[in-house]
Specification:
The protein is of the alpha/beta class and 457 residues long. It has 14 helices and 20 strands. The protein folds into two domains: 111 residues, Urease, subunit C, domain 1 (Roll); 321 residues, Metal-dependent hydrolases (TIM Barrel, Alpha-Beta Barrel). The radius of gyration is 21 Å and the shape is globular. Bound molecules: zinc ion (ZN). The site of zinc ion has 4 residues, from strand 6.
Length: 457
């Protein structure tokens, strides 16, 4: 007899797509599928009419504290944002940790703070920016954080606000070599900032009040600035023999650059984010929609969807940032970039997918097995015997309007407010335990989440 059976639903399988079956869970793991009503279980939950899939894995978020996006400071940071994750059908996220100091003295403390609040499992990527941190890369890989971020756009004093020194291509090259030797992967933020500075000065001089809004922001760091940096890092990574993960790919140009380098032999995975699929410079968001890379033109958004149809994009993430709405004040030039996306992740993706004629069968791997494989999450991303019972149960017939009051993120706002979602997350389970049940967060799941050590394949 197993612990739990989810009965009567339609269940995602790697090899056969969606099938009608009962899903069996025992001791926090998937025990297998059974034909309807056949298995003995201590608890049976009827999910008739609902769709069961592995929980989404969001490989790109920023778990911070208020205005500070560098790291969680108190358990409540993890409690609220893993609550947002469960609400959006996400069962595991990987957060970027940022520091000007070495990670060794604080890494375990950051894990412990997050575990105390987390409802779901999580991992970390670290931003590598200093000589001390470069020397720590093998240690971080051994601690289960084998993916390192480099802000290619932090040159000169661009990183002063974050306390980070400027880097150059020599540092990038040494980081690539170090990651290769340690069994790691680079996740570069690709932007040629030297060209962006020139364009920023021109665009701001022509539009000092930012009247052109999101289009003006896009014009200060346009697609070719992203594409050039991505092209450069992917080329250099081929020379060093290091895998590269292209985070938040936002434009047709950057996509083309990544595919060209991949075609030439670079080991490049391509991530885009939900906002580049649901919004563009024509969207009516004002400064709230400021993000880096910027929301792009409608044709860029169309190109990303076309790449999804062709199987060229590996994963979709959120780049969730949970700063408060005050971070968006002061117009397009003063607003801080980034916004939350976890609460609405799967509903927004499924809703837009319908409009684009892209079904859930195409989208599931991009948010489950693909990120699990690429990011070294061996026990997650699939509903196969022995895998962690991390899953989400969706109602694809449900319709609801996104309301600020219903959000779990402590950011307290969403770029989807007022929009009708054409799918809803009903239940979310982490290692067999309900974290969200009938659309409501389970309070005592706080502290259930664990730091996951990752090893790249
Ligand atoms: Zn990010």
């Amino acid at each position: 007899m197993v612990d739990l059976a989810l009965t009567g639903g339609t269940v995602w399988t790697e090899d056969r797509g969606f099938v009608a079956a009962d899903l069996l869970i025992d001791k926090g793991r998937i025990a297998g599928l059974a034909s309807a009503g056949r298995a003995e279980a201590a608890e049976r939950v009827d999910v008739s009419g609902l769709t069961v899939m592995p929980g989404a894995i969001d490989a790109h978020i920023h778990l911070g504290h208020g205005q500070d996006i560098s790291r969680p400071r108190v358990p409540a940071d993890a409690a609220s944002e893993t609550g947002a994750a469960a609400t959006g059908g996400v069962t595991c996220f990987l957060s970027y940790v940022l520091s000007a100091d070495p990670y060794g003295p604080v890494f375990d403390e950051i894990c412990a703070i997050a575990e105390e609040g987390a409802r779901l499992d999580f991992g970390f990527h670290c931003v590598i920016a200093t000589e001390d941190q470069l020397a720590e890369v093998p240690w971080l890989v051994a601690r289960g954080a084998p993916t390192a971020k480099l802000f290619m756009n932090i040159r000169g004093d661009e990183g002063a606000r974050l306390g980070l020194p400027g880097n150059d291509d020599g540092y990038l090259f040494r980081l690539l070599e170090t990651l290769r030797d340690a069994g790691g992967m680079l996740c570069p933020h690709p932007e040629n900032i030297e060209i962006a500075w020139v364009l920023r000065d021109r665009v701001m001089a022509a539009d000092p009040d930012g009247a052109d809004g999101l289009a003006a922001w896009n014009a200060t760091r346009p697609p070719f600035v992203e594409a050039e940096a991505l092209s450069r890092v992917a080329y250099l990574a081929r020379i060093t023999g290091t895998p590269v993960h292209a985070v938040h790919t936002s434009s047709a140009e950057a996509l083309k650059a990544a595919l060209l380098q991949r075609g030439a032999g670079s080991d490049v995975s391509i991530e885009t984010c939900i906002q580049y699929l649901t919004h563009d410079t024509d969207s009516d968001l004002g400064a709230t929609g400021k993000v880096n890379p910027p929301l792009r033109a409608p044709h860029d958004r169309a190109a990303l969807w076309e790449a999804i149809r062709r199987g060229q994009i590996d994963m979709i993430a959120t780049d969730h940032i949970h700063r408060p709405p005050t971070s968006k004040e002061g117009g397009i030039w003063k607003a801080q970039p980034g916004f939350p996306g976890l609460d609405t992740f799967l509903p927004a993706l499924i809703t837009e997918g319908k409009r684009q004629g892209v079904g859930l069968e195409t989208l599931v791997p991009l948010v489950t097995s693909n990120p699990a494989k690429r990011m070294g999450l061996a026990t997650k991303g699939r509903l196969e015997p022995g895998a962690d019972a991390d899953l989400t149960v969706l109602d694809l017939q449900a319709r609801y309007v996104v309301r600020r009051e219903a959000l779990a993120t402590d950011a307290g706002y969403s770029i989807h407010e007022g929009q009708t979602m054409e799918a809803a997350v009903v239940h979310t389970l982490s290692r067999g335990r309900f974290v969200l049940r009938d659309g409501a967060l389970i309070a005592d799941a706080v502290g259930h989440g664990r730091y996951v050590r990752r090893i790249l394949a």
